[in-house]
């Protein structure tokens, strides 16, 4: 009996309900409510409650909501996958069509490409990536070619007599390095001291500190190769400063082997004050001759923003004598500030120390800053310039007076 009821239930579900749904007869079959009552035979089953009824509307809503959530999730995932895949297909089609498309594109770049608002923007972005990729390939190719040429040159040199020549050059360089080192060691005992004031880190930016250290490295090399080098002192030098970090970048392991004196003390604590002369372009006193018994101080500063008076103020606070190079006395200055780089100052001081000739020493001043050397005394040139200015001013005053008289006469005639 029970199996018959089950069969009857299946037949009703498979035949009557679909037929009624197709012909719009659901409301006629179930006029009051869409509740299916169990048969009398099923009511006698102990597993079921006689009063239970199945609510088809609620069941349908639950099933539809679950299906819609699953469908929306799968659609969103497929949409994301389809958009990225479609974008890659578009890129491949454009590449085959001969457009500027990069060969390799990352996920971030693909996302940026998909977010471009227009087609022209997408083309421009792809062209940018394509050019960037070409530049990287060209740089890599050039590096490989350079490495290959170097290897070929070394191979050819090993087969010819260039090996002997290179060995002689290396031997000569080693001998000269030993000679320069010996001179620098001698200068640490008998040489004239030259002080670099390393207390201007707070007055400069990181880039200016790097430029300062680069100039000091050039100065140290120039001094080491000279005939009579200075004994270089780095005063007010802190171990954890930017100066120290930049010196380590340049010298690396050779920093601890330099034949110079590095101290965190001030130069006034190391040398007597009466022998110190601070060289600064802002000093009112002009340096006439080079004194071999004095100790000159150079401020380790690159002032791109032209910080006038900083080194002069520091020298005055310490009660030191100051001096400036006689640039106007010997040079017809053209334009720009009268500030020189540290390596130029080193060249000038070494030349003065060896020759004592200002004309020879000031040849290290850049040619763009002056027109030539002074042929006449400076006071005569100043007199000539003042006379020219007076003549110009007198002529101008006469022109102004005539113009005023002319305008005044016109006003009188109009009245």
UniProtKB/TrEMBL annotation:
The enzyme's E.C. designation: 2.1.1.218, 2.1.1.221
Q: Where is the SAM-dependent MTase TRM10-type domain?
A: 180-372
List, as start-end ranges, the regions of compositional bias called Basic and acidic residues.
141-159
Superkingdom of source:
Eukaryota
Give the primary localization class. mitochondrion
Q: What InterPro entries does this protein's entry cite?
A: MT_TRM10-typ (IPR028564), MT_TRM10-typ_sf (IPR038459), Trm10_C_MTase_dom (IPR025812), tRNA_m1G_MeTrfase_euk (IPR007356)
Query: What biological processes does GO assign it?
Result: methylation; mitochondrial tRNA 5'-end processing; positive regulation of mitochondrial translation
Recorded hits in CDD domains, A to Z, give:
Trm10_MRRP1
Localisation: Mitochondrion
Reactions catalysed according to its record: an adenosine in mRNA + S-adenosyl-L-methionine = an N(1)-methyladenosine in mRNA + S-adenosyl-L-homocysteine + H(+); guanosine(9) in tRNA + S-adenosyl-L-methionine = N(1)-methylguanosine(9) in tRNA + S-adenosyl-L-homocysteine + H(+); adenosine(9) in tRNA + S-adenosyl-L-methionine = N(1)-methyladenosine(9) in tRNA + S-adenosyl-L-homocysteine + H(+)
Q: Which UniProt keywords apply?
A: Coiled coil, Methyltransferase, Mitochondrion, S-adenosyl-L-methionine, Transferase, Transit peptide, tRNA processing
- What sections of the sequence does the record tag as coiled-coil? none
MF annotations from Gene Ontology = tRNA (adenine(9)-N1)-methyltransferase activity; tRNA (guanosine(9)-N1)-methyltransferase activity; tRNA binding
What cellular component terms from Gene Ontology apply here?
A: mitochondrion; nucleoplasm
Q: What PROSITE patterns does the database record attribute to this sequence? A: SAM_MT_TRM10
> What residue spans carry the region label Disordered?
137-159
Protein name (database record) = tRNA methyltransferase 10 homolog C
Organism of derivation: Pygoscelis papua
Print the organism lineage: Eukaryota, Metazoa, Chordata, Craniata, Vertebrata
């Amino acid at each position: 009996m029970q199996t018959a009821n089950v069969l009857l239930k299946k037949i009703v579900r498979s035949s009557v309900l679909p037929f009624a749904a197709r012909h719009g007869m659901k409301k006629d079959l179930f006029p009051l409510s869409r509740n299916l009552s169990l048969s009398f035979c099923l009511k006698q089953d102990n597993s079921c409650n006689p009063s239970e009824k199945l609510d088809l509307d609620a069941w349908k809503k639950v099933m539809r909501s679950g299906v819609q959530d699953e469908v929306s999730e799968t659609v969103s995932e497929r949409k994301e996958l389809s958009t990225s895949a479609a974008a890659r297909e578009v890129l491949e089609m454009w590449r085959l069509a001969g457009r500027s498309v990069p060969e390799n594109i990352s996920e971030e770049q693909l996302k940026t490409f998909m977010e471009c608002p227009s087609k022209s923007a997408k083309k421009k972005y792809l062209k940018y990536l394509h050019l960037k990729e070409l530049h990287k390939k060209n740089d890599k190719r050039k590096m490989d070619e350079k490495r290959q040429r170097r290897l070929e040159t070394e191979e050819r040199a090993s087969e010819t007599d260039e090996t002997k020549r290179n060995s002689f050059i290396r031997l000569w360089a080693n001998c000269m390095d030993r000679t320069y080192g010996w001179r620098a060691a001698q200068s640490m005992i008998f040489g004239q001291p030259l002080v670099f004031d390393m207390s201007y880190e707070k007055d400069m930016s990181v880039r200016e500190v790097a430029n300062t250290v680069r100039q000091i490295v050039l100065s140290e090399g120039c001094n080491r190769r000279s005939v009579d080098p200075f004994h270089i002192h780095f005063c007010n030098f802190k171990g954890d400063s930017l100066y120290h970090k930049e010196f380590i970048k340049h010298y690396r392991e050779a920093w601890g082997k330099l034949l110079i004196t590095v101290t965190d003390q001030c130069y006034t604590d190391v040398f007597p004050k009466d022998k110190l002369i601070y060289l600064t372009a802002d000093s009112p006193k002009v340096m006439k001759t080079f004194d071999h018994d004095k100790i000159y101080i150079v401020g380790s500063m690159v002032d791109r923003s032209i910080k006038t008076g900083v080194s002069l103020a520091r020298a005055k606070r310490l009660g030191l004598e100051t001096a400036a190079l006689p640039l106007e006395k010997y040079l017809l200055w053209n334009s720009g500030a009268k500030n020189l780089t540290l390596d130029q100052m080193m060249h000038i001081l070494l030349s003065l120390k060896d020759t004592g000739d200002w004309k020879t020493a000031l040849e290290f001043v850049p040619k763009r800053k002056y027109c030539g050397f002074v042929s006449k005394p400076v006071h005569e040139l100043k007199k000539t310039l003042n006379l020219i200015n007076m003549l110009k001013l007198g002529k101008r005053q006469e022109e102004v007076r005539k113009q005023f008289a002319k305008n005044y006469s016109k006003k009188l005639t109009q009245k």
